[in-house]
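Why Quinone oxidoreductase? Reviewers of the renewal asked for a concrete example.
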Amino acid sequence: MAKAIRIAANGGPEVMQYVDVEVGEPGPGEARVRHHAVGLNFIDVYFRTGLYPQALPGGLGQEAAGVVEAVGEGVAHVAPGDRVVYAGGPNGAYSQARVMPAQGLVRLPDAIPFETAAAMMLQGLTVQYLFNRTYKLQPGQTILFHAAAGGVGLIACQWARALGVNLIGTVGSDEKAALAKVHGAAHVINYNREDVVQRVLEITDGAKVPVVYDSVGKDTFTRSLDCLQPLGLMVSFGNASGAVPPVALSELASRGSLFLTRPTLGAYAARREDLEAMALDLFGMVESGKITVEVKQTFPLAEAAEAHRALEGRRTTGSTVLLP
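Here is what the prediction returned.
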C-alpha cells in the first residue's frame, strides 16, 4: 500500500483526497517507482478542474523523481536501484509510489538532487522545446515571455541569458520583477501598473518582437498578438487565466500574417530519442550552472490541496515540490 492523492469528481482543491492505494507489480513495459519528490504544475489544476478531461476516479500529477524498485518484461533502459525522473502522462505522480509506463523514465545524474529534478523536469523540458524547436532562438533577439517569475519563467530567463537572447518578462508585482531580473530577464514589465504593448514598443524602438511565449491564456492573448512583428509567432502554451476563446483568423491577418501554435510537451517528447536528447540538454544546462532551479515552496503530499490554492492564488514563485 502507498499514500496517494485521488479525485472522484472535478472541482476545487477540496475534491483532492489523500488515500491508501494498492501499487502492485509492474507488467510488460512498466516500472515501479518510489517517489522522493513530486513536481507541482498548473497542468495539474487543469486536470483537477476538468479543463483537461480524464477518466474519474483518477490521480493527479505528471512529474516526479525517485528510485526504480522493479521493472517489467522488456524494460532495458532503467533497472532497479536507478535514480530516475519523468514528466508527462499518465497522471498519478501525486503518490508515494506507483507503477507506470517505463517509456517516460529518464536516468537522473547523481549531481542533481531529487527535489531539484522534480521541480525542473516538466518546466525545463518545456523551455527546452520552446526555445530550440517551437521557435529556434538566435543570439541578439528580443522576445516576450509572460509569467517570467513562475517556475517555467525563471528557467526561461536563465536559458535566454545563456543563449544571448534579450528576454522581456511580464510579472504581477515588483517583488516578482526583481526575481525575474536576477534570473536573467533583460527587461521586466509589471502588468498591474504598466501597459505591456506600449512598453514592448518602447523597449524595441517600435520594432516589436518575433515571438511571444504565453502560458497565461485568456487575459494576455490579444495583447500578445499586438506585441508581434509581421510574420511573428504566437506560442500559446498554457491557460493560467482561463482558456483562450475562439480566434478569428482575420486577427492574425490584420496584424501582419502572424503564426499561431499551441504546443505540448507530449508531442515534442513522444519519441524516446527526442525525450533523451531534450533531457540531456536540460541536465547539461543545470550541471554547468547556467540554469539554477530553485525550489521556492515545499508542501507535504498530504497538503496538496493547499499547494493548489497557493498556485492558483498566484502566491508562489519559482518551483513548488510535494514531499511524499
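The chain has two domains: 2-120+271-323, 139-262. This is the kind of structural detail the renewal will allow us to pursue systematically.
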